[in-house]
Structure formats: C-alpha cells, structure tokens
C-alpha cells in the first residue's frame, strides 16, 4: 500500500523522528542512566553446565513466556516510509522470541488507512505486540475507540505513554495533561488488555508511581534519562527556534527511576532508557526490573541489516546477558533477581535523598 509522500501533521512527524534519531546526535549530553554506579555481587558457588550456553534466560512478561527479559520498545508507525521498520523489527523479535511495541497509534486514529504500518502480525502472527497511545489522547478517545485501535493490529497489551517534556518542546505539541491520570485509570479499569504506563526518556518518579499504584494499571515502564533524548529530537526538528535548550538534559536517570518506581509500585516494572548492553540488563534485573526495553540500538540494527540485522543484534545482547550471568554464577533469571548489589556515586546520593537507605544495597540471596 502506498500513500502520498507526506501526510501533514502526525504522520509526517514519524518520518522526521526516525531521520533525526538516526542522523543526528540526540542522545543525552551529560546525564547518564546511572547504571555505571551499580556494582553486582557474584553469588557463591558455581552453576552446572557449559558456561553461558546452558544458562536459561526465559522469563515471564505479564503472563506470557518470553526467551529473555528483553523487549523492543515502541518507536514508530503511521507513515508508509516507516512501515518496513516495524515489519523488520517484528521479523527479528519473532526469530528470537521476545515482545515488541509500536509507536504511538495516534496517526492511525487520525488516518485509519495507516493501520497497516503497525499491523506486523499479518506476517508474524506469533509476535507479542504492545499497542501504544499517548496519555493526552487517552483523554480524547473513548475506551471503545482505543480497544478498536488495538483490535485492528491484534495487540496483546496497551502502553499509554506520558511525554510532557517532549510535547512541550515540540512545535504544536499537546501539553494538555489535566485529567490524564483519570483517563489512564478509566482505560486500565475498562479495557480488555493489561495496561503499561511508560515515559519516553525523562523517567517516572516515586510520586507518579504511587499514583499509578492506586489504579488498575498492570505495569510501569520507567522510560528514564540517559539514552535518546526526545526533547533534543524536537529541538532539532524546530531548527533552533525553541528556547528550551536549558531542558536538554532534563529527566530522572533510568537506574534512579527504576528504584524509585520499585519503592512505590508492586506491579510489573520494566526499565527502558539508555539500555545498551547485556550488563545494563543484568543490573536492571538485579535492581528489580521484570524486563528491559531496547529502542535506539534496534533501530540502528534495522537500518543497517533489516530483519536479519535486528535478530543478529538481539542474539548478541542476549549472549552478553548470559556471559554476565555466568560471571555472577546465575543459571537463570530467578537467580539473577537475587544477586546482591551496591550503589555508588550520584546514584547512591540520589537514593539517599529520594527513597532512603533501604535500596542502597542488597546482600546476595
């Protein structure tokens, strides 16, 4: 299916986002994920088997079995030029056995003919798919409309993203967030899918997590600072016309956001934002994440090698995770969750101020 080269508004912005992320340095400049301030403590003894090749990374994702505690975060959709990206990612995750998300489905709500750019299950029926809508648009559309949106692409779960920083920096961005919490609560209570609330690079605090804990939301995705900076993306798109550069490094780092969320929310928690290595994933799991989301490195892999590039990259990072698990003497993900850790530097300082001393360290289980 082909469309005009440019559909004004939401759809064309999807193409611009991909071009900016792949062609410009829009990572955080000074702020990091703070995973470098985490030290993992190897478990005593040794596991049986032949090094990393027999380590089991299988785990649970909201009731679904997956091959590793990894998923591809939603990035794009909504334009003919980005449809292949989603399909290639689906091909890669299908081979590896992990979930994937799609970008905001607002474009297909505004232009129903664009639904095919998100509909990866028409070729990869086994993919566990996370649908996506913004919190500001959960206030606009009814639960019935959102359900229909998910049904059109056979999505298994719904992500509701909150991105006030990005919207504030975006020319024509939607910064109407009054009533967003109620809208999220209504959707989570009335829709027939489990709902995950996610940030997109600025992190979720313990205060927000505590509010979400009072709803029927099943999960929180930290979407912390330290990776791709969506404020920077919008500032670049604006061509220097926005006076928001002071917010270029704004946000709660991913490791800090993860521990803040865990201090206030007992549900399913995923860590995204600057996750780049298997060691990052191991640290996040040890700190309490149920899974980790990858985006930018997957987009780069797709741009270079299509579906095969995605699958090869995912296999590589899973092997990195297995090697780190072998170093820690963990034969499976449950053992990794019991690994001891210590925190240092800026992360330790942040935790002392924000969540107290209880999460600063943990002895091995």
Q: How is this fold's topology laid out?
A:
Blueprint: H1 10-23, E1 38-41, E2 59-61, E3 64-66, E4 70-72, H2 83-96, E5 100-101, H3 106-110, E6 129-134, H4 135-138, H5 143-153, E7 157-162, H6 164-169, H7 180-190, E8 195-199, H8 206-213, E9 219-221, H9 230-237, H10 254-264, E10 268-271, H11 278-287, E11 291-294, H12 296-327, H13 333-337, E12 340-343, H14 345-354, E13 361-362
Parallel strand pairs: 4-11, 5-6, 6-7, 7-8, 8-9, 9-10, 10-11
Antiparallel strand pairs: 1-12, 2-3, 12-13
Write a brief structural summary.
Helix content is 41%, strand content 13%. The protein has helices at 10-23, 83-96, 106-110, 135-138, 143-153, 164-169, 180-190, 206-213, 230-237, 254-264, 278-287, 296-327, 333-337, 345-354, and strands at 38-41, 59-61, 64-66, 70-72, 100-101, 129-134, 157-162, 195-199, 219-221, 268-271, 291-294, 340-343, 361-362. The radius of gyration is 20 Å and the shape is globular.
């Amino acid at each position: 299916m082909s469309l005009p080269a440019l559909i004004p508004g939401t759809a064309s912005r999807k193409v611009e986002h991909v071009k900016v992320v792949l062609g410009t340095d829009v990572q955080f400049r000074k702020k990091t994920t703070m995973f470098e301030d985490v030290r993992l403590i190897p478990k005593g003894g040794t596991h049986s088997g032949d090094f990393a090749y027999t380590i089991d990374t299988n785990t649970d994702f909201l009731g679904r079995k997956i091959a590793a505690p990894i998923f591809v975060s939603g990035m794009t959709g909504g334009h003919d030029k980005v449809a292949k990206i989603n399909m290639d990612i689906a091909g890669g995750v299908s081979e590896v056995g992990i979930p994937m998300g799609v970008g905001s489905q607002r474009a297909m709500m505004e232009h129903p003919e664009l639904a095919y750019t998100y509909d990866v299950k028409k070729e990869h029926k086994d993919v566990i798919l996370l649908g996506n809508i913004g919190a500001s648009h959960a206030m606009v559309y009814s639960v019935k409309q959102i359900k229909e949106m998910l049904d059109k692409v056979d999505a298994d779960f719904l992500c509701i993203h909150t991105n006030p920083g990005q919207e504030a920096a975006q020319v024509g961005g939607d910064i109407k967030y009054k009533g967003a919490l109620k809208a999220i609560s209504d959707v989570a209570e009335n829709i027939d899918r489990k709902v995950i609330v996610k940030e997109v690079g600025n992190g979720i605090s313990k205060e927000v997590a505590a509010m979400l804990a009072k709803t029927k939301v099943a999960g929180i995705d930290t979407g912390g600072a330290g990776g791709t900076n969506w404020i920077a993306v919008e500032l670049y798109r604006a061509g220097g016309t926005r006076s928001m550069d002071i917010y270029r490094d704004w946000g709660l780092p991913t490791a800090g956001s993860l521990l803040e969320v865990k201090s206030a929310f007992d549900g399913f928690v995923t860590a995204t934002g600057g996750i780049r290595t298997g060691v990052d994933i191991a640290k996040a799991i040890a700190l309490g994440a149920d899974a980790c989301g990858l985006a930018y490195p997957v987009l780069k892999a797709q741009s270079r090698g299509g579906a095969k590039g995605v699958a090869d990259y995912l296999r590589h990072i899973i092997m990195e995770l297995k090697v780190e698990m072998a170093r820690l003497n963990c034969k499976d993900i449950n053992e990794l969750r019991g690994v001891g850790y210590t925190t240092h530097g800026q992360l330790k300082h942040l935790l002392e101020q924000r969540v107290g001393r209880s999460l600063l360290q943990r002895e091995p289980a």
